Amino acid sequence: MTIAPLRLKKDEDRRLRAGHVWVYSNEVDVAATPLDGFEPGQPVVIEDHAGRPVGSGYVNPHTLICARLVSRDAAQVLGQSLLVHRLNVCRSLREKLFGAPYYRLAFGDSDGLPGLVVDRYGDVAVVQITTAGMERMRAEVIAAVTKVLRPRAILLRNDASSRQIEGLASYVESVAGEVPELVAIEENGVRFEVPVLAGQKTGWFFDQRFNRARLAKYAAGARVLDVFSYAGAWGVQAAVAGADHVLCVDSSPRAMDWIRGNAAVNGVENRLELMHDDAFEALRRLRAERRHFDVVIVDPPAFIKRRKDIKEGMQAYYRLNQMAMQLLGRDGILVSASCSFHLARSDLQQMLLRSSRHLDRFLQLIEQGGQAPDHPVHPAIPETEYLKVFFSRILPN
Predict the structure, then answer these.
(1) Residue 322 burial by CB count (10 A; 0-12/13-18/19+): exposed, middle or buried?
(2) What would the pLDDT profile of 254-285 be if each residue is shown by its tens digit?
(3) Are both 130 and 265 inside the same structural domain?
(4) Which of 9, 245, 269, 288 is spaced 20 to 30 A from 166 at the CA atom?
């Protein structure tokens, strides 16, 4: 099979040779290889200005990131064989890290699989495809996941908003076996039933696994508030760790059912209280009721999804953390997280300091966390290092 070349402008190959894997549309020599001559997802050989191959990849002429490098061997094109090999490499790391088959198997560019996420829930695999190049390989992706994992069921959660940028339709589809509404997993010794069909993203946030493990020592004997609870990953684990009382807050009616079910699975429903409300409204109401907690967890969705959201998103993070601090007792622990890449770790730290000073409280940063190692960071792509978590002690001045 002859693969078309994608020619770069002079010196625009330097970033790729230094380790990056994205090609931007303004880096392409459109006189030599016009972008309108390519189909979305078409495989290409990426060449430097002199025609020397940099590697193989795929192209989408309609996006700012118009090509993604798949292999630095131009003869190694994306197909089922390469997908199987890369997924096996992914699995070898995860099996060293985790004793049970509950993890993110593939994390896009960081695992050499641009546009592909695979989460493993025992014998159920949830796959998310986000680029035209990987969508073109849909059948090969399904075959590769089947060969590597041999799952009883495969679900495509192809409803991420990023697919719109690639010109892809949004859909959720079971492509193998029968996918149940809830699948069972275990995290940090705690059992959960995960809503893979109707839940957020691919159903579970494996990236917070180690941060939730850190929570146990702070939760024992404590009054805990878990804001943005979703399916109860933080709150239920706090209760299992011995919290006296846990209040879980979420705006989704279905989340209330998921939390209730996960509390029952672990026998801690008597120590959980549920509040169905908007997070900010709930924090205001709790302050008006003069309720106080020993531990407050705020793990919101990304308030800053794009650069244009930075100003408004920063204000939301600031308000959220300040309101959370107001509900802490004299010696309280705030667990503050952000999954917004555009909010730097240093900015979140400074925000916590400003919030504490505004309330005339003394702040100690006692632990920091990031994403779990089944979400590896590509050192050339800052966007792959997105999760920030601070465990802070809030004291009187």
Answers:
(1) middle
(2) 999 999 999 999 999 999 999 999 999 999 99
(3) no
(4) 9
Looking at the structure, tell me whether residues 246 and 391 fall in a common domain: yes
Residue 31's domain comprises 4-71
- Report the relative pairing of strands 183-187 and 190-194 from DSSP bridges: antiparallel
Tokens of 269: 């429903």
Count helices and strands in the chain by DSSP H and E runs: 11, 19
Q: 135 is written with which tokens? A: 């969508």
* Sequence-separated (6 or more) residues with CB below 8 Å from residue 109: 21, 22, 68, 378, 381, 384
From 66, 90, 248, 339, active-site residue: 339
Q: Are 14 and 7 in contact (CB under 8 A)?
A: no
Region of 340 please: left (phi>0), alpha (psi -120 to 50) or beta. Answer: beta
* Alpha carbons 214 and 17: distance in angstroms, whole number: 39
Q: What is the helix (H) or strand (E) element at residue 144, kind and residue range?
A: helix 138-149
CB contact at 8 A, 320 and 300 = yes
Q: Which of 29, 20, 25 is nearest to 40 (CA)?
A: 25
Question: Does the annotation mark 248 as catalytic?
Answer: no
Give domain status of residue 30, yes or no: yes
List pLDDT tens digits, range 201-232: 999 999 999 999 999 999 999 999 999 999 99
- Residue 188: inside a domain: no
Is pTM, for the whole model, over 0.85? yes
- For residue 31 the two structure tokens come to 């006189």
pLDDT category at 306 given cuts 50, 70, 90 is confident
CATH classification at residue 381: 3.40.50.150
Contact at 8 Å (CB) between 174 and 155?
Answer: yes
